[in-house]
Structure to design on (180 residues):
């Protein structure tokens, strides 16, 4: 049996199942949804991305999924209620551990606004500052946490989250002060 090149399908540069106008419309809908997201209209943006997702060209699908997740997270953030400051702290730490640093910072700040003597929130903020390279802020928050609760000094000595601060002499002095 001879191989007939004429019957071989010629690959198209167009995405399969999408007309040129359909792709153009999808990009327009995508841009409109992104604008809604940037305006803080998370519920409308979420609906727009979810509507777009099934028919979106391949190059937009992953972005749509990412933005859907972002919208959901932003909407959930506004619905949070905590029974205790410790519960609020646990949430802030979970945000820190998952890499949502700005959200974690907002949560620690909210705890401190309501409970200025919450040494654990200052300690958490110091960890966040160490991780994000805000050396001066780290030292300030840690010093306040230690002043409110001296046990924080011992905890910080063994805490790997302060590893980036280990070579800073101010950090060392804060953790190992000279006894008069």
């Amino acid at each position: 049996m001879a191989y007939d090149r004429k019957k071989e399908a010629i690959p198209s540069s167009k995405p399969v199942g999408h007309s040129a106008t359909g792709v153009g419309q999808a990009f327009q809908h995508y841009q409109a949804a992104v604008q809604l997201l940037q305006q803080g209209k998370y519920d409308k943006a979420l609906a727009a991305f979810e509507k777009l997702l099934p028919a979106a060209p391949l190059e937009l699908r992953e972005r749509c999924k990412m933005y859907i997740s972002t919208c959901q997270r932003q909407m959930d953030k506004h619905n949070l209620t905590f029974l205790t400051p410790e519960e609020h702290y646990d949430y802030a730490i979970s945000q820190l551990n998952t890499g949502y640093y700005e959200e974690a910072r907002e949560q620690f700040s909210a705890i401190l606004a309501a409970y200025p003597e919450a040494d654990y929130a200052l300690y958490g903020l110091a960890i966040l500052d160490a991780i994000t390279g805000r050396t001066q802020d780290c030292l300030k928050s840690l010093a306040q946490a230690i002043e409110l609760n001296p046990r924080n000094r011992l905890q910080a000595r063994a805490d790997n989250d302060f590893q980036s601060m280990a070579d800073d002499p101010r950090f060392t002095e804060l953790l190992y002060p000279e006894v008069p």
